[in-house]
Each structure stands twice: as C-alpha cells, then as structure tokens.
C-alpha cells in the first residue's frame, strides 16, 4: 500500500469512510455541535475522544512512533482562531464539505472562507508578517 | 430519517479509518493539510516534480557506487546516500511520520471522497434535503438573518482556514492523528481549539 496507487486507494477509502462517519455521527448538524460544545449532550464528545483513546491504545500496542512535532509560536493562536471559527460556522475543514453533501447549501460560503483563510495564512507567512518557525502553514 | 450513531459506533468508526490509513500508508492524514496543498496546486506540483528528480539522482548515484564497487572489488568510495525506501527501521517501530506528504492528487481525492461519503450517508439515512439555511439550530443560536448568516459563515471559514494552518493541523490532523500519537503539540492544539469552541458556544447559547 506504500505505492502511489496504494496511497491513492487509501485516501479514497479514508475520505469515503470519514465523510460517511462524521455525517452519521451528526457533526454536520449545527444544533448537535452546539450541544456537544456546551456539554448538553456528550454523545459526539465521547465519539471524538473515544476514538482518540482507541487510536492511542492501538498505536501503543503496534508501537507506532509517537508524534515529535515541536510546539511553535503559531500553535496556540492558530488553535484559538480555529476554535472560534468552528463554533460560529459549525465547520472544521472537513465539515462544510459534508454539510453541502447533506444539502446545507450556505456551507459553500464556509468553504469559500476556508479557501481564503488557507491562502491568506501562506501568503502572510511568506511575507513574514509574523515570525512563525517551520511547522506553521506547512503540510 | 434514522437517528445519529451512538457514541461508541462513532468512536469505533473514526478510530478504524485513522488506524487503517496510518497502517496502510505509513502516513498521517489531515484534512487541513490536504486543503493547503490542493489550494496551492501549482506550487506543490512543482515541489513534487523536484523531489522526484532528486530521488532519481540519489538512486543513480547509489547504483553507480555499487557498480563501481563490484567492478573494482572495493567498497564504494562515495558514501551512498540512502533513498527513502532504503531507510532502515532502526528500532523496529513503524515510523508513521513520513517525511513527505501523500501525493497531491491523492489529497484531492481525499477531499472529493469526503463529499461522496457524506452524500451516501445523508441519502441512505433519509437526511438529505436541499436547504438555503443552516438549520433551526443555527437560526436560534447564531442568527436568522440570511445576510448575517452568510457573513458569519464566511468569517468563520476564514478563521478555520487561517487558524488550522497557523496551528499546523485541525481536528483530524492534530485531534485524531496527533493525539493518537500522544504528540505534545497536538495535545496542546486540541485542548486549545476545543476549549475555545466550548467558550464561544456557551456565549452563543447563554448570552447572545
């Protein structure tokens, strides 16, 4: 599966599974999302963090290497901006895609915003408007 | 219309796809990283082409070194730089952190297939319905004004796009993959974006 074709197939299947799963959990439903973030309903919260616990356990069992990313200056400010954006638009980078797929047409505007935001970050970083080390605005 | 999945089914689903991708490709997937590369397609394609040329050159140097050693019965005079496939697994662990991201076209496929997967789920659950709003929840909690809705969705999208790239990942890259690997930077990022979203959501629910 490490060949180009294998990686292509893995991305295809993962994308299908991710779209199907997050839609079936209800991440595209703004009311459900707000109920998760305000702890009125822990179902989606437990789905996410339950998944993290399973992944961490399996990775430890299979001895998958731990993450070594460095805590650079962009992490906390970037995560704060992302948290605000997620709460007011209901979208993390995958969610507006499945919202449109569920028929929520205004989510196209959220996607347009993400396109502008992603390009703006790379442009600003390239112009050195802020001094963020390697790790920000990079894949 | 069928009910949303129970929490355990969602947890198993998200875990299986994350673990499956990691084991199959020896990489981590991240949706914001895929957006980043696809939106800078031209530049990223150029980088991929240069990388391929560089790999070819390294392979050529390695092959010449081995041929020279065989001909003269000596060890290669020039140290052979290892190619990506020749890097030994030093401690028996899966690396899982590939130095190069997945090929550009595969990341475009990831974004398109998320749409298809979401469409299949919405149609089969009876939840697909063309709407020109974001649902009753958004109307009650955020705004019922269509102009304000468009402005907030766009502003929110810009914050999501800018913020995830500044932080180096999103709920899939940092949240599922990074936290699953117990990466300190991902744990900090996930706690921060979840904490911020909780605070803003409480404001929307209780105050605004």
UniProtKB/TrEMBL annotation, chain A:
Keywords for this protein: Membrane, Transmembrane, Transmembrane helix
InterPro entries: Sulf_transp_TsuA/YedE
Keyword Transmembrane helix (UniProt): yes
Stretches that traverse the bilayer: 42-62, 74-98, 104-121
Superkingdom of the organism of origin: Bacteria
Protein name as annotated: Uncharacterized protein
TrEMBL record, chain B:
Gene Ontology CC annotation, any one: plasma membrane
Membrane-crossing residue ranges in chain numbering: 104-126, 147-167, 187-205
Entry keyword annotation includes Chaperone: no
Keywords: Cell inner membrane, Cell membrane, Membrane, Transmembrane, Transmembrane helix, Transport
InterPro entries reported for this sequence: Sulf_transp_TsuA/YedE
Protein location: Cell inner membrane
Protein name in the entry: Transporter
Topology in the lipid bilayer: Multi-pass membrane protein
Family the UniProt entry places it in: Belongs to the TsuA/YedE (TC 9.B.102) family.
């Amino acid at each position: 599966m490490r060949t180009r074709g294998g990686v292509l197939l893995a991305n295809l299947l993962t994308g299908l599974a991710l779209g199907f799963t997050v839609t079936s959990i209800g991440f595209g439903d703004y009311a459900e999302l707000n109920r998760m973030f305000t702890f009125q309903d822990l179902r989606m919260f437990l789905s996410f963090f339950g998944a993290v616990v399973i992944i961490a356990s399996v990775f430890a069992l299979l001895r998958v290497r731990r993450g070594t990313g460095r805590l650079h200056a962009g992490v906390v400010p970037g995560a704060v901006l992302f948290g605000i954006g997620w709460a007011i638009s209901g979208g993390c980078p995958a969610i507006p895609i499945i919202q449109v797929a569920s028929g929520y047409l205004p989510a196209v505007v959220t996607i347009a915003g993400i396109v502008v935001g992603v390009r703006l970050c790379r442009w600003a970083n390239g112009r050195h408007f802020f001094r963020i080390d390697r790790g920000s605005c990079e894949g | 219309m069928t009910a949303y999945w129970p929490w355990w089914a969602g947890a198993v689903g998200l875990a299986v796809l994350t673990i499956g991708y990691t084991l199959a490709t020896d990489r981590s997937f991240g949706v914001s990283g895929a957006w980043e590369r696809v939106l800078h397609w031209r530049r990223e394609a150029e980088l991929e082409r240069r990388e391929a040329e560089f790999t070819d050159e390294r392979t050529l140097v390695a092959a010449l070194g081995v041929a020279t050693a065989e001909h003269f019965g000596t060890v290669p005079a020039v140290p052979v730089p290892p190619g990506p496939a020749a890097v030994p697994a030093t401690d028996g662990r899966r690396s899982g952190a590939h130095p190069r991201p997945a090929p550009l076209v595969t990341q475009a496929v990831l974004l398109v297939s998320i749409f298809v997967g979401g469409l299949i789920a919405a149609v089969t659950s009876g939840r697909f319905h063309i709407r020109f709003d974001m649902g009753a929840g958004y109307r009650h909690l955020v705004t019922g004004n269509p102009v304000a809705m468009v402005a907030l969705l766009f502003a929110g999208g810009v914050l999501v796009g800018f913020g995830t790239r500044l932080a180096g990942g999103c709920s899939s890259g940092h949240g599922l993959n990074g936290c699953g690997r117990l990466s300190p930077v991902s744990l900090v990022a996930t706690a921060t974006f979840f904490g911020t979203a909780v605070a803003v959501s409480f404001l929307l629910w209780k105050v605004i």
